[in-house]
C-alpha cells in the first residue's frame, strides 16, 4: 500500500470512479458527499465506448454492461415520427470495441460504491472549502463539522463546483447555454426503440433501460428559470403534439419526479485542472453541454488520474493530468456546444437544411467519423491489477505509458 491519503469531494460518477481507481492502487480514500443519502439525480445515462473502457480499467465494466442495455440502433425522427436518419450502431462496437450502453445512474453508482472498502463514503458531509497545500504541506478540506488533511484532494463536486469557484476565482464561471432540460424514468415495457426526435428548438430522447424502464429526456430553447411544478404540463405544451409514444410518455410522467435543469457550461476552460494538491475531475473540471456524454469524460478523468499518481511523483502527476486532460475536455466541450447549436435551430428553413444534413450524413453533421474517433477512440492508460498476498486484496500497478491509439 502507498500509505497516501486522498479525500474525494462528491460521490457522483467522477468522484466514485476516482475513489475506486485510487483505493485499488493502495491509497486510503475518503469520499465526502453532501447529500444525506446516495440518490443519483437524472435517471438513465448513455455510456459510449470510451466510458466503458474507463470502467473496464477499474474493473467495473463487466458489472455495468450486465446492468445495462446495448444500443443496437439509433436515429433521429421529425416531430411527425418520420425518420430523418437511422443508424445501425453496430459500427460503434466494431470500431471502438464496445457498444453504446444505456444504464440507470443508480445502478452505476451502486456498482462503483460496491468496489470501495466499507465506510469509504461519508454522506451528509458538505465541503465548504479546500486549501491547496504545497510540496511540504498537505491539502486541507473543510466541512461543516471539521476538517481533513490529505496528500491529494479530488474536487468532483459537479457542475456547480464550489471548489472550482474558490480555487479559480478569476474564471468567468458558468453561462446559460440557451436551453433547458427535463429528465424522467418510468416503466414502459412496450417502448424498446431508442432514438431522438428533433423539432424546431426542441429535442426529445428515448432511452430504454433494463428492467422494463425507459429514460426520457427533453430539451427546449427557452428562458432559464421557472422550475416550479411546470413538469409534465410544460412538457405536454412543448411536445404533446409530437409522434407517439412521446405524448403518452409525458402523460404517464405526471406525478413522477421530473428533473429540470437549465443547461449551463463553463464560458471558458480553466487555466489548469489542478492547484497545489487539489485536482478537478468531471463536471467540476469541464462543465459542458450534455450532447457528447460528459459522464464518460469524468470516467476518463478518473482513470487518467489514477494512472498519473501511480506512475509519477504527485506534482508531476498533477501537471501531467492537467496537460493531457485539459485540451481534450476543452475540444469536446466545443464540439458539444456545436451539436447543441444544431438542436437550438428554430428558424424553419435553417431546420430543414439541418435535417437534410442528417439525412445525408446519417448522423448529426458535426459528428464526422474523425470527431467520433476523437471522442470514442480514447483508451485508458494500462493499469494491471496485482494481488497483495498478505491482505488478499487486488491493486493496480502501472504497466505502460498512456496512449490514445489511432482507431482505424
Ligand atoms: C440533461 C442531461 C443529460 C445527460 N446525459 C448524459 C448521458 O447520456 N451520458 C453521459 O455520459 N453524460 C450525460 N450527462 C452528463 C453527466 O450527467 C455528467 O457529466 C456527470 O454526471 C458528471 O459527473 P460528476 O461526478 O462530475 O458530477 P455529479 O454527478 O454532479 O456529482 C457531483 C457530486 O458532488 C456532490 N457535491 C456537490 N457539492 C458538494 C460539496 N460542497 N460537498 C460535498 N459534496 C458535494 C453532489 O451532491 C454530487 O453527488 C447528462 C447531463 C445532463 C444535464
Bin the strand percentage: 25-35%
Helix percentage: 25-40%
- Indicate the CATH architecture of the domain at 5-70 and 99-174 and 269-343 and 366-398: 3-Layer(bba) Sandwich
Q: Which ligands, by name, code or SMILES, are bound?
A: flavin-adenine dinucleotide
Please write the CATH class name of the domain at 5-70 and 99-174 and 269-343 and 366-398: Alpha Beta
Biggest sheet record: 7 strands, mixed
User: Low-confidence spans: pLDDT under 50, at least 5 residues?
Assistant: 384-408
Number of strands: 21
CATH topology of the domain at 5-70 and 99-174 and 269-343 and 366-398: FAD/NAD(P)-binding domain
| Annotated CATH homologous superfamily of the domain at 5-70 and 99-174 and 269-343 and 366-398 | FAD/NAD(P)-binding domain
Q: What count of helical segments does DSSP give?
A: 13
Q: Order the strands across the largest sheet as they lie in space.
A: 6-5-14-15-16-13-17
What is the straight-line distance between the termini?
39 Å
Task: Describe the global form.
Answer: globular
Task: Tell me, rounded to a whole number, the average pLDDT.
Answer: 88
* Class of secondary structure makeup: alpha+beta
Rg for CA atoms: 21 Å
How would you describe the overall organization of this protein?
The protein starts with a strand and ends in a 10-residue tail after the last strand. The chain has a domain at 5-70 and 99-174 and 269-343 and 366-398: FAD/NAD(P)-binding domain (3-Layer(bba) Sandwich), CATH 3.50.50.60. The strands form five sheets. The protein has a seven-stranded mixed sheet with strand order 6-5-14-15-16-13-17, with helices on both faces. The chain has helices at 13-24, 49-57, 61-67, 90-96, 105-114, 162-167, 231-239, 246-253, 283-286, 294-311, 314-344, 348-361, 369-376; strands at 5-9, 28-32, 44-47, 69-70, 73-77, 83-88, 101-104, 121-122, 127-131, 139-143, 146-150, 152-155, 174-187, 195-198, 202-208, 213-221, 259-266, 274-275, 278-280, 383-388, 393-398. It is built from 13 helices and 21 strands. It is α+β, with helices and mostly antiparallel strands and 408 residues long. The model is unreliable at 384-408 (pLDDT under 50). β18 (274-275) and β19 (278-280) form a beta hairpin. It binds flavin-adenine dinucleotide. Flavin-adenine dinucleotide binds next to α1, β3, β13, α9 and α10. Flavin-adenine dinucleotide (FAD) is lined by residues 9-15, 32-35, 42, 45-46, 126-127, 156-159, 162, 181, 183, 217, 261, 282-284, 290, 293-296, 298.
Amino acid at each position: 500500500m502507498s500509505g497516501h491519503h486522498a479525500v474525494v469531494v462528491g460521490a457522483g460518477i467522477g468522484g466514485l470512479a476516482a475513489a475506486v481507481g485510487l483505493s485499488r492502487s493502495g491509497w486510503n480514500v475518503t469520499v465526502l458527499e453532501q447529500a444525506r443519502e446516495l440518490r443519483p439525480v437524472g435517471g438513465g445515462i448513455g455510456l459510449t465506448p470510451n466510458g466503458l473502457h474507463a470502467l473496464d480499467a477499474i474493473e467495473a465494466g463487466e458489472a455495468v454492461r450486465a446492468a445495462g442495455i446495448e444500443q443496437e440502433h439509433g436515429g433521429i425522427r421529425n416531430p411527425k415520427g418520420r425518420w430523418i436518419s437511422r443508424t445501425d450502431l453496430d459500427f460503434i462496437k466494431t470500431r471502438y470495441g464496445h457498444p453504446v450502453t444505456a444504464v440507470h445512474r443508480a445502478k452505476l453508482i451502486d456498482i462503483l460504491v460496491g468496489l470501495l472498502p466499507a465506510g469509504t463514503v461519508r454522506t451528509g458531509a458538505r465541503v465548504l472549502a479546500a486549501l491547496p497545500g504545497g510540496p511540504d504541506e498537505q491539502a486541507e478540506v473543510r466541512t461543516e463539522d471539521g476538517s481533513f488533511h490529505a496528500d491529494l484532494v479530488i474536487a468532483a463536486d459537479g457542475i456547480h463546483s464550489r471548489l472550482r469557484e474558490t480555487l479559480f476565482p478569476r474564471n468567468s464561471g458558468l453561462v446559460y447555454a440557451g436551453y433547458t432540460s427535463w429528465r424522467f424514468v418510468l416503466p414502459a415495457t412496450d417502448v424498446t426503440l431508442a432514438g431522438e426526435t428533433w423539432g424546431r428548438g426542441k429535442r426529445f430522447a428515448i432511452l430504454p433501460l433494463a428492467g422494463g424502464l425507459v429514460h426520457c429526456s427533453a430539451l427546449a430553447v427557452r428562458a432559464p428559470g421557472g422550475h416550479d411544478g411546470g413538469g409534465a404540463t410544460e412538457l405536454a405544451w412543448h411536445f404533446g403534439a409530437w409522434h407517439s409514444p412521446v405524448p403518452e410518455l409525458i402523460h404517464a410522467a405526471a406525478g413522477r419526479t421530473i428533473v429540470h435543469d437549465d443547461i449551463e457550461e463553463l464560458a471558458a476552460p480553466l487555466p489548469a485542472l489542478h492547484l497545489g494538491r487539489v485536482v478537478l475531475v468531471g463536471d467540476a473540471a469541464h462543465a459542458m453541454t450534455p450532447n457528447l456524454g460528459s459522464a464518460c469524460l469524468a470516467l476518463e478523468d478518473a482513470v487518467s488520474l489514477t494512472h498519473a499518481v501511480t506512475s509519477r511523483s504527485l506534482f508531476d502527476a498533477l501537471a501531467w493530468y492537467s496537460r493531457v486532460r485539459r485540451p481534450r475536455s476543452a475540444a469536446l466541450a466545443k464540439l458539444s456546444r456545436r451539436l447543441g447549436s444544431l438542436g437550438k435551430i428554430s428558424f424553419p428553413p435553417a431546420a430543414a437544411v439541418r435535417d437534410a444534413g442528417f439525412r445525408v450524413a446519417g448522423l448529426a453533421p458535426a459528428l464526422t467519423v474523425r470527431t467520433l474517433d476523437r471522442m470514442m477512440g480514447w483508451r485508458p492508460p494500462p493499469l494491471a491489477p496485482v494481488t497483495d498476498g498478505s491482505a488478499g486484496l487486488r491493486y493496480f500497478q502501472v504497466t505502460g505509458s498512456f496512449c490514445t491509439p489511432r482507431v482505424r
